[in-house]
Amino acid sequence: MRDILTIFGLIVRQEKRPFLTGLLLSYLVLIAGLALLGISGWFITATGAAGLVGIGIQFDVFRPSAAIRFLALGRAAARYGERMLTHDATLKSLTILRLQLLKAINRFSYSKIIGFRGGELLNRVTADVDALDGISLRLIIPILAGGLTYLTAFAALYLFVAPIVAWVTIGLFLLGTGLTLSIAMKLAKAPSNRIERAHQSLRLRLIDLFRSKTDLIVTGNLQAQLAKVGGADQRLRANQRHVDTIELVVGVALSSTSLIAAVMALALGADLAQAGSISAAQAALGFFAILALNETMGPLRRGVTEYGRMQAAASRVNRLLEQGPEQREQQPCASASAVGANASPALSFQDVHYTTESSAREILSGISFDLEQGQRLALTGPSGGGKSTVLHLAARLLQPTSGSITLFGAPLASLDEAELRARQAFLPQRSMLMHGTILDCLRLANPAISEAEAWELLKVVALERTIKERGGLSCALGESGLGLSGGQKRRLSLARVLARHPRLVLLDEPTEGLDQETANEVLAGISDYLPNSAILIASHRDAELNWAHSELRIRKNIFCN
User: Fold this and answer.
1) Of the ranges 236-250, 273-287, 489-503, 535-549, which one carries the lowest mean pLDDT score?
2) pLDDT tens string 289-328
3) Domains in the chain, ordered, with CATH?
């Protein structure tokens, strides 16, 4: 419950006034319903009693009937205002919460980020935030409004009916509803949590199906993937039926509790009326007021059955928000003049070791090299030997276990993030292209790039003719670069890297998927475009090896020139 209260505090903190006003209106809705039914019962009984004794003509029917109309209209208006305020405030608060979560995720280290499947983290965050709207709308606000209503009902019954009626009926109502809701929360917690997991599983499997349908058809695995989607859907439906059954039973139990309390109010009122302690109209007021209290539990029926889902989501969101920045050794920030010193190597590794955090497996052991400005150095060796790891370390996406890395003479760990990214650029093995035009893609790296410069870049990566045939720089790409072949996507990603005119370029198999002639043309274009930049390239192709000035070979964590 602590996690749920923490999230509720975060939500309310963003929109205090709307939530407090919404809570007040929710309370007024319940009080109006209580008064409406209570006064109606009193009015009917009082007019009937007046008619029986022959004084009906003297009975004032106008003020009670006016009060009933006022309560009915006021209740409708208050309910509308409460829904508008609380729902709008919740949606606004959750929007802010999404931004806070994205900022928290942005603090993750690269090694943690790559541990998630594509779309898994975003899917989880989206689903968790969607589950949190019920905390305020279907759980906390109804509980607070209901509690205030019980106190008001107790005071009204105590003052206008009889103290014993107030103590017995409100006590029975609180006991019955409290037991029902607490048992329902325990019973529904596990299936509600399973519903959330099934929802996420279904989303991920559908995403995999839509994104990979061609490959699934070609490999003959389409039916197997459809079966997995169907299985996730069946699990979702089965658990949803379980929760719906619990909600139905909860509704019956709450109605029974209200009925028992109302019967007790009627019995006690009748005894007191016969004894002359109260009037028949007062006894009727107590009976109908207790019946009206059943309305206070309506919003909670769904809330308690979703408690498990909300609790699990709140726990995960809290852990993300509490995630602090990844810690690394703090060193004084290097100045721009120090980073720009020409006497130092562009990139230097000195006795660098790297061991993975998750499996404690040593990937790199004692690597040392200097990469001078204008030099091209190729990293070679078997797949999985650590070539990409060297590039990730140089890009400061990973932190070395020991050893030192310097960029233009300044310790890599001490560089300001903006300064670091301005000096170097990295093309990983898998690059992401987003929906937009070709020019939009290049301006993601360099917002100030002109159309002439964009065409020059496309010529460098041997894409100029292809893009002209597709309509030029205004050619629109779909999600993940849809509309281009694999090799064309690779070259456009490379052009985006070069658009920044980096002094250090980190390339991970840049000509993968290209034929020999195109690969040579692209590599020659890079040399001409950035003749003075230092280039570190992870390679396994002859074209890249012949293009490099020197080679650093990796063999089972042993590095030699």
Assistant:
1) 273-287
2) 888 887 777 777 778 888 888 888 888 888 888 765 554 4
3) 2-322 (1.20.1560.10), 345-433+486-560 (3.40.50.300)
The amino acid that residue 122 corresponds to is L
Alpha-carbon separation of residue 143 from 3, 154, 255 (angstroms)? 17, 16, 17
Token pair of 290 as six digits: 């207790």
The phi and psi torsions of 214 (rounded to 5 degrees) equal: -65, -50
Count of other CB atoms within 10 angstroms of residue 58: 7
CB-based contact 551:377 (threshold 8 Å): yes
Is the four-CA dihedral 452, 454, 457, 463 of positive or negative sign? negative
Helix (H), strand (E) at residue 479:
none
Tokens 């920044």 belong to: 500
DSSP H helix total and E strand total for the chain: 21, 12
d(CA 176, CA 172): 6
Beta carbons of 400 and 354 less than 8 angstroms apart: yes
Q: 203 and 123 in contact (C-beta within 8 Å)?
A: yes
The C-alpha atoms of residue 350 and residue 404 are separated, in whole angstroms, by: 5
Q: What is the pTM of this model?
A: 0.64
CA 113, 117, 122 angle in degrees (round to 5)? 75
Strand partners, 505: 425, 535
Q: How far apart are CA 459 and CA 266, in angstroms?
A: 90
- Residue 337 CB burial class (10 angstroms; 0-12, 13-18, ≥19): exposed
Rounded-to-integer distance, Cα 268 and Cα 266, Å: 6
Rg (the chain; Cα; Å): 35
Sign of CA dihedral 522, 523, 527, 530: positive
Of 360 and 334, the structure prediction assigns the larger pLDDT to 360
pLDDT in tens, 384-412: 778 888 999 998 888 888 899 999 888 98
Whole-angstrom CA distances from 252 to 30, 146, 247, 266, 554 are 20, 19, 9, 21, 71
∠ CA 299-302-303, rounded to 5°: 80
The b/e string for 127-141 (b: 16+ C-beta within 10 A; e otherwise) is bbbebbbbbbbbbbb
Report the distance separating Cα 524 and Cα 401, nearest Å.
36
**How do the residues of the chain divide into helix, strand and coil, expressed in percent and rounded to 5?**
65, 10, 20
Neighbouring CB atoms inside 10 A of 473's CB total: 18
Burial of 116 (0-12, 13-18, 19+ CB in 10 A): middle
**Could you give the strand order of the β-sheet that contains 410-411, starting from the edge strand earlier in sequence?**
362-371, 347-355, 402-407, 410-411
Q: With bands split at pLDDT 50, 70 and 90, how would you rate the model's confidence at 455?
A: very high
Q: Token digits for 63?
A: 């003020």
Contact 78, 18 (CB under 8 A): no
CA dihedral 114, 119, 124, 127 (to 10 degrees): 170
Residue with tokens 């993975």: 356
Largest CA distance in the chain: 116
